[in-house]
Amino acid sequence: MLTIATGNKAVAAAVKEVKPSVVAAYPITPQTEIVETIADYVDAGTLSAAYIPVESEHSAMAACIGASITGVRTFTATSSHGLLYMHEMVNWAAAARLPIVMANVNRALGPGWNIWAEHTDSLQERDTGWLQVYVSTVQEAFDTTMMAFRIAEDERVLLPVMVNLDGFTLSHTFQSLETVIPGDYLPPISLPHAIDVEKPCGYGPMTGPDDYFRFRWDIERSMRDSGAVINEAQRIFAEKFKRSYGMTEEYRCEDAEVLVIAMGTLGKEAEVAVDVLRNEGIKAGSLRIRWFRPFPDLDIRGRDVVVIDRDYSFGFGGILADSIRARYSCSVSSVIAGLGGQEVTYNDIAAFVRDRKPGTEHWFGVKA
Predict the structure, then answer these.
(1) pLDDT tens across 122-151, in order?
(2) 107: left (phi > 0), else alpha (psi -120 to 50), else beta?
(3) Which CATH class name applies to 2-197+206-241?
(4) DSSP 36-89
(5) pTM of this prediction?
(6) Which fold has domain 248-363?
Protein backbone atom coordinates (compact mmCIF):
# COMPACT_ATOMS: atom_id res chain seq x y z
CA MET A 1 0.00 0.00 0.00
CA LEU A 2 1.31 3.45 -0.93
CA THR A 3 0.98 6.19 1.66
CA ILE A 4 2.79 9.12 3.30
CA ALA A 5 4.48 8.57 6.64
CA THR A 6 7.22 9.68 8.99
CA GLY A 7 10.26 7.57 9.74
CA ASN A 8 8.77 6.68 13.12
CA LYS A 9 5.46 5.64 11.56
CA ALA A 10 7.33 3.55 8.98
CA VAL A 11 9.12 1.59 11.71
CA ALA A 12 5.84 1.00 13.55
CA ALA A 13 4.14 -0.10 10.32
CA ALA A 14 6.90 -2.64 9.68
CA VAL A 15 6.53 -3.98 13.22
CA LYS A 16 2.78 -4.42 12.66
CA GLU A 17 3.45 -6.51 9.55
CA VAL A 18 6.15 -8.58 11.25
CA LYS A 19 3.76 -9.44 14.13
CA PRO A 20 6.03 -9.75 17.18
CA SER A 21 4.53 -11.54 20.18
CA VAL A 22 5.90 -9.05 22.71
CA VAL A 23 6.57 -5.30 22.53
CA ALA A 24 8.10 -3.60 25.58
CA ALA A 25 7.73 0.18 25.56
CA TYR A 26 8.93 3.27 27.37
CA PRO A 27 8.57 6.73 25.78
CA ILE A 28 11.41 9.12 25.03
CA THR A 29 11.65 11.99 22.54
CA PRO A 30 11.97 11.67 19.55
CA GLN A 31 11.16 7.94 19.59
CA THR A 32 7.81 8.05 21.39
CA GLU A 33 5.72 8.05 18.21
CA ILE A 34 6.95 4.53 17.40
CA VAL A 35 5.67 2.88 20.58
CA GLU A 36 2.53 5.06 20.62
CA THR A 37 1.64 3.93 17.11
CA ILE A 38 2.27 0.29 18.00
CA ALA A 39 0.07 0.73 21.08
CA ASP A 40 -2.70 2.02 18.78
CA TYR A 41 -2.31 -1.08 16.59
CA VAL A 42 -2.62 -3.35 19.62
CA ASP A 43 -5.62 -1.41 20.95
CA ALA A 44 -7.33 -1.58 17.55
CA GLY A 45 -6.69 -5.29 17.24
CA THR A 46 -4.59 -4.97 14.07
CA LEU A 47 -1.57 -6.31 15.97
CA SER A 48 -1.97 -9.21 18.37
CA ALA A 49 0.90 -8.75 20.79
CA ALA A 50 1.57 -8.48 24.49
CA TYR A 51 2.28 -4.76 24.90
CA ILE A 52 4.23 -4.12 28.12
CA PRO A 53 4.38 -0.46 29.28
CA VAL A 54 7.41 -0.71 31.56
CA GLU A 55 8.78 1.78 34.08
CA SER A 56 12.12 2.46 32.38
CA GLU A 57 14.26 1.70 29.35
CA HIS A 58 16.35 -0.70 31.40
CA SER A 59 13.15 -2.59 32.15
CA ALA A 60 12.10 -2.47 28.49
CA MET A 61 15.17 -4.41 27.42
CA ALA A 62 14.88 -6.73 30.42
CA ALA A 63 11.29 -7.51 29.39
CA CYS A 64 12.42 -8.19 25.82
CA ILE A 65 15.12 -10.53 27.12
CA GLY A 66 12.62 -12.42 29.26
CA ALA A 67 10.25 -12.80 26.33
CA SER A 68 12.88 -13.62 23.71
CA ILE A 69 14.46 -16.39 25.75
CA THR A 70 11.14 -18.25 25.54
CA GLY A 71 11.49 -18.26 21.75
CA VAL A 72 9.04 -15.54 20.72
CA ARG A 73 9.60 -12.53 18.44
CA THR A 74 10.22 -9.29 20.38
CA PHE A 75 10.64 -5.57 19.66
CA THR A 76 11.37 -2.35 21.47
CA ALA A 77 12.43 1.20 20.63
CA THR A 78 14.40 3.91 22.39
CA SER A 79 16.66 6.93 21.95
CA SER A 80 19.68 8.66 23.45
CA HIS A 81 19.66 8.53 27.26
CA GLY A 82 17.14 5.72 27.12
CA LEU A 83 19.65 3.62 25.18
CA LEU A 84 22.35 4.47 27.70
CA TYR A 85 20.04 3.47 30.55
CA MET A 86 19.61 0.11 28.79
CA HIS A 87 23.36 -0.42 28.48
CA GLU A 88 23.67 -3.33 30.94
CA MET A 89 20.76 -5.17 29.33
CA VAL A 90 21.98 -4.36 25.79
CA ASN A 91 25.14 -6.33 26.60
CA TRP A 92 23.07 -9.09 28.18
CA ALA A 93 20.81 -9.49 25.13
CA ALA A 94 23.74 -10.02 22.77
CA ALA A 95 25.64 -12.36 25.09
CA ALA A 96 22.49 -14.46 25.56
CA ARG A 97 22.21 -14.72 21.75
CA LEU A 98 18.70 -13.30 21.59
CA PRO A 99 17.38 -11.99 18.23
CA ILE A 100 15.69 -8.86 19.59
CA VAL A 101 15.08 -6.00 17.17
CA MET A 102 15.23 -2.44 18.49
CA ALA A 103 14.73 0.87 16.73
CA ASN A 104 16.94 3.64 18.06
CA VAL A 105 16.10 7.19 17.05
CA ASN A 106 19.48 8.88 17.18
CA ARG A 107 19.58 11.88 19.49
CA ALA A 108 22.35 13.88 21.15
CA LEU A 109 23.40 13.25 24.74
CA GLY A 110 23.20 15.84 27.50
CA PRO A 111 23.89 18.01 29.22
CA GLY A 112 23.25 20.51 27.69
CA TRP A 113 19.94 18.96 26.88
CA ASN A 114 19.37 18.49 23.19
CA ILE A 115 16.72 16.41 21.42
CA TRP A 116 18.14 16.62 17.89
CA ALA A 117 20.15 14.15 15.83
CA GLU A 118 23.58 12.76 16.66
CA HIS A 119 25.05 9.27 16.34
CA THR A 120 27.10 9.19 19.54
CA ASP A 121 24.31 7.42 21.44
CA SER A 122 24.27 4.28 19.27
CA LEU A 123 27.99 4.35 18.55
CA GLN A 124 28.66 4.10 22.28
CA GLU A 125 27.00 0.67 21.99
CA ARG A 126 29.05 -0.47 19.00
CA ASP A 127 31.08 -3.04 20.96
CA THR A 128 28.17 -4.81 22.68
CA GLY A 129 27.60 -7.48 20.02
CA TRP A 130 24.55 -5.89 18.39
CA LEU A 131 24.34 -5.56 14.63
CA GLN A 132 23.85 -1.89 13.73
CA VAL A 133 22.26 -0.43 10.60
CA TYR A 134 21.70 3.27 9.79
CA VAL A 135 18.86 4.27 7.46
CA SER A 136 18.27 7.49 5.54
CA THR A 137 14.71 7.45 4.15
CA VAL A 138 11.23 6.55 5.35
CA GLN A 139 11.03 3.65 2.89
CA GLU A 140 14.41 2.36 4.04
CA ALA A 141 13.27 2.53 7.67
CA PHE A 142 10.29 0.29 6.89
CA ASP A 143 12.19 -2.18 4.72
CA THR A 144 15.20 -2.43 7.01
CA THR A 145 13.09 -3.00 10.13
CA MET A 146 11.40 -5.91 8.36
CA MET A 147 14.73 -7.34 7.18
CA ALA A 148 16.23 -6.94 10.66
CA PHE A 149 13.97 -9.65 12.07
CA ARG A 150 14.95 -12.14 9.38
CA ILE A 151 18.65 -11.40 9.90
CA ALA A 152 18.57 -11.50 13.71
CA GLU A 153 16.58 -14.74 13.82
CA ASP A 154 18.78 -16.61 11.33
CA GLU A 155 20.54 -19.45 13.19
CA ARG A 156 23.84 -18.35 11.64
CA VAL A 157 23.47 -15.03 13.49
CA LEU A 158 21.17 -15.11 16.55
CA LEU A 159 22.28 -11.65 17.58
CA PRO A 160 20.09 -8.59 18.22
CA VAL A 161 19.78 -5.83 15.62
CA MET A 162 19.61 -2.07 16.21
CA VAL A 163 17.93 -0.04 13.44
CA ASN A 164 19.06 3.59 13.71
CA LEU A 165 17.31 6.62 12.24
CA ASP A 166 18.16 10.29 12.72
CA GLY A 167 15.99 12.16 15.21
CA PHE A 168 13.52 14.60 13.60
CA THR A 169 15.55 14.75 10.36
CA LEU A 170 14.05 11.36 9.53
CA SER A 171 11.92 10.29 12.49
CA HIS A 172 9.45 13.17 11.98
CA THR A 173 9.91 13.83 8.26
CA PHE A 174 7.09 12.83 5.91
CA GLN A 175 7.99 10.91 2.76
CA SER A 176 6.27 8.39 0.53
CA LEU A 177 6.04 4.84 1.87
CA GLU A 178 5.02 1.60 0.22
CA THR A 179 4.19 -1.01 2.83
CA VAL A 180 4.36 -4.72 2.06
CA ILE A 181 3.32 -7.92 3.80
CA PRO A 182 6.35 -10.13 4.53
CA GLY A 183 4.62 -13.45 3.89
CA ASP A 184 7.17 -16.22 3.42
CA TYR A 185 10.02 -13.69 3.46
CA LEU A 186 9.99 -13.96 7.24
CA PRO A 187 10.01 -17.59 8.44
CA PRO A 188 8.59 -18.46 11.89
CA ILE A 189 11.09 -17.81 14.65
CA SER A 190 12.93 -20.86 15.97
CA LEU A 191 15.33 -20.22 18.85
CA PRO A 192 17.52 -23.31 19.41
CA HIS A 193 18.20 -22.50 23.05
CA ALA A 194 14.70 -21.32 24.01
CA ILE A 195 13.56 -22.25 27.50
CA ASP A 196 10.36 -24.22 27.99
CA VAL A 197 8.19 -22.67 30.68
CA GLU A 198 6.32 -25.96 30.96
CA LYS A 199 9.55 -27.72 31.91
CA PRO A 200 11.32 -25.46 34.41
CA CYS A 201 15.03 -26.00 34.91
CA GLY A 202 17.80 -24.47 36.95
CA TYR A 203 20.56 -22.57 35.14
CA GLY A 204 24.05 -21.89 36.42
CA PRO A 205 25.09 -18.56 34.83
CA MET A 206 28.60 -18.40 36.25
CA THR A 207 31.17 -18.93 33.45
CA GLY A 208 34.79 -19.46 34.42
CA PRO A 209 38.05 -18.59 32.63
CA ASP A 210 38.16 -21.93 30.79
CA ASP A 211 34.94 -21.18 28.89
CA TYR A 212 34.11 -17.46 28.98
CA PHE A 213 36.39 -16.50 26.09
CA ARG A 214 34.78 -19.23 23.95
CA PHE A 215 31.38 -17.56 24.29
CA ARG A 216 32.90 -14.22 23.29
CA TRP A 217 34.55 -15.78 20.27
CA ASP A 218 31.22 -17.31 19.27
CA ILE A 219 29.65 -13.83 19.19
CA GLU A 220 32.49 -12.65 16.94
CA ARG A 221 32.13 -15.70 14.70
CA SER A 222 28.43 -14.98 14.26
CA MET A 223 29.13 -11.29 13.67
CA ARG A 224 31.49 -12.30 10.84
CA ASP A 225 28.94 -14.76 9.45
CA SER A 226 26.21 -12.11 9.59
CA GLY A 227 27.61 -10.30 6.54
CA ALA A 228 26.60 -13.18 4.27
CA VAL A 229 23.21 -13.43 5.98
CA ILE A 230 22.59 -9.69 5.53
CA ASN A 231 23.47 -9.88 1.84
CA GLU A 232 21.22 -12.91 1.40
CA ALA A 233 18.31 -11.21 3.20
CA GLN A 234 18.73 -8.09 1.09
CA ARG A 235 18.96 -10.08 -2.15
CA ILE A 236 15.78 -12.06 -1.41
CA PHE A 237 14.02 -8.86 -0.35
CA ALA A 238 14.94 -7.27 -3.69
CA GLU A 239 13.67 -10.30 -5.61
CA LYS A 240 10.38 -10.34 -3.72
CA PHE A 241 9.66 -6.62 -3.27
CA LYS A 242 11.80 -4.97 -6.00
CA ARG A 243 13.75 -2.68 -3.68
CA SER A 244 17.51 -3.19 -3.40
CA TYR A 245 19.89 -2.50 -0.51
CA GLY A 246 23.50 -3.28 0.30
CA MET A 247 25.96 -3.05 3.14
CA THR A 248 26.64 0.41 1.71
CA GLU A 249 24.87 2.64 -0.78
CA GLU A 250 27.05 4.03 -3.57
CA TYR A 251 26.22 7.06 -5.70
CA ARG A 252 28.36 7.97 -8.71
CA CYS A 253 31.33 6.10 -7.29
CA GLU A 254 32.44 4.21 -10.40
CA ASP A 255 34.97 6.79 -11.60
CA ALA A 256 35.09 8.94 -8.46
CA GLU A 257 38.44 10.39 -7.42
CA VAL A 258 37.11 11.65 -4.08
CA LEU A 259 34.54 9.87 -1.92
CA VAL A 260 32.26 11.37 0.71
CA ILE A 261 31.56 8.78 3.42
CA ALA A 262 28.80 9.33 5.98
CA MET A 263 25.87 7.58 7.67
CA GLY A 264 22.17 8.31 7.98
CA THR A 265 20.57 11.38 6.43
CA LEU A 266 23.91 13.15 5.92
CA GLY A 267 24.87 10.28 3.64
CA LYS A 268 21.77 10.99 1.55
CA GLU A 269 22.42 14.76 1.55
CA ALA A 270 25.89 14.00 0.22
CA GLU A 271 24.37 12.69 -3.03
CA VAL A 272 23.11 16.19 -3.87
CA ALA A 273 26.55 17.58 -3.04
CA VAL A 274 28.09 15.07 -5.44
CA ASP A 275 25.88 16.35 -8.26
CA VAL A 276 26.99 19.92 -7.51
CA LEU A 277 30.64 18.91 -7.53
CA ARG A 278 30.28 16.91 -10.74
CA ASN A 279 28.88 20.02 -12.45
CA GLU A 280 32.08 21.80 -11.38
CA GLY A 281 34.24 19.09 -12.94
CA ILE A 282 35.16 17.41 -9.62
CA LYS A 283 34.82 13.62 -9.86
CA ALA A 284 33.10 13.03 -6.52
CA GLY A 285 31.03 10.11 -5.27
CA SER A 286 28.99 9.32 -2.17
CA LEU A 287 29.51 6.12 -0.19
CA ARG A 288 26.89 5.86 2.54
CA ILE A 289 27.60 3.33 5.28
CA ARG A 290 24.40 1.40 6.06
CA TRP A 291 25.72 -1.46 8.22
CA PHE A 292 28.24 -0.28 10.78
CA ARG A 293 28.30 -3.65 12.55
CA PRO A 294 29.45 -5.80 10.93
CA PHE A 295 31.72 -3.20 9.37
CA PRO A 296 31.55 -3.40 5.57
CA ASP A 297 34.32 -3.85 3.04
CA LEU A 298 34.95 -0.56 1.23
CA ASP A 299 36.52 0.11 -2.16
CA ILE A 300 38.41 3.26 -1.22
CA ARG A 301 42.07 2.64 -1.96
CA GLY A 302 43.65 5.11 -4.34
CA ARG A 303 41.01 7.78 -3.77
CA ASP A 304 40.72 10.85 -1.58
CA VAL A 305 38.29 10.23 1.28
CA VAL A 306 36.22 12.80 3.15
CA VAL A 307 34.47 11.27 6.18
CA ILE A 308 31.64 13.12 7.91
CA ASP A 309 31.05 12.06 11.51
CA ARG A 310 27.85 12.99 13.35
CA ASP A 311 29.55 11.77 16.51
CA TYR A 312 32.80 12.10 18.42
CA SER A 313 35.06 10.04 20.67
CA PHE A 314 36.69 12.64 22.91
CA GLY A 315 40.48 12.53 22.87
CA PHE A 316 40.49 10.24 19.84
CA GLY A 317 38.39 11.49 16.92
CA GLY A 318 35.38 10.88 14.73
CA ILE A 319 34.31 7.26 15.24
CA LEU A 320 33.57 6.52 11.58
CA ALA A 321 36.75 8.22 10.35
CA ASP A 322 38.88 6.37 12.86
CA SER A 323 37.21 3.06 11.99
CA ILE A 324 38.14 3.60 8.34
CA ARG A 325 41.71 4.62 9.23
CA ALA A 326 42.11 1.52 11.39
CA ARG A 327 40.72 -0.85 8.78
CA TYR A 328 42.44 0.58 5.70
CA SER A 329 45.52 2.39 7.05
CA CYS A 330 44.62 5.35 4.86
CA SER A 331 44.72 9.11 5.25
CA VAL A 332 41.28 10.72 5.41
CA SER A 333 39.92 14.22 5.67
CA SER A 334 37.79 14.01 8.82
CA VAL A 335 34.89 16.40 9.29
CA ILE A 336 32.88 16.58 12.51
CA ALA A 337 29.49 17.99 11.56
CA GLY A 338 25.83 17.78 12.50
CA LEU A 339 26.31 17.29 16.25
CA GLY A 340 23.13 18.01 18.17
CA GLY A 341 21.20 18.61 14.97
CA GLN A 342 23.57 21.27 13.60
CA GLU A 343 22.34 22.07 10.10
CA VAL A 344 24.55 20.65 7.36
CA THR A 345 23.45 21.28 3.77
CA TYR A 346 24.62 19.80 0.50
CA ASN A 347 26.46 23.06 -0.16
CA ASP A 348 28.34 22.59 3.12
CA ILE A 349 29.24 19.04 2.15
CA ALA A 350 30.45 20.21 -1.26
CA ALA A 351 32.67 22.73 0.55
CA PHE A 352 34.10 19.92 2.73
CA VAL A 353 35.23 18.24 -0.48
CA ARG A 354 36.65 21.37 -2.10
CA ASP A 355 38.58 22.30 1.08
CA ARG A 356 39.68 18.77 2.01
CA LYS A 357 43.06 18.27 3.61
CA PRO A 358 43.96 14.57 3.96
CA GLY A 359 45.17 13.60 7.41
CA THR A 360 43.40 16.47 9.19
CA GLU A 361 40.30 16.86 11.35
CA HIS A 362 37.94 19.81 10.90
CA TRP A 363 35.02 20.75 13.17
CA PHE A 364 32.35 22.39 11.05
CA GLY A 365 31.38 25.79 12.48
CA VAL A 366 34.40 25.99 14.81
CA LYS A 367 37.28 28.35 14.10
CA ALA A 368 40.59 26.72 14.94
Answers:
(1) 999 999 999 999 999 999 999 999 999 999
(2) beta
(3) alpha beta
(4) HHHHHHHHHTSS--EEEE-SSHHHHHHHHHHHHTTT--EEEEE-HHHHHHTHHH
(5) 0.98
(6) Rossmann fold (3.40.50)
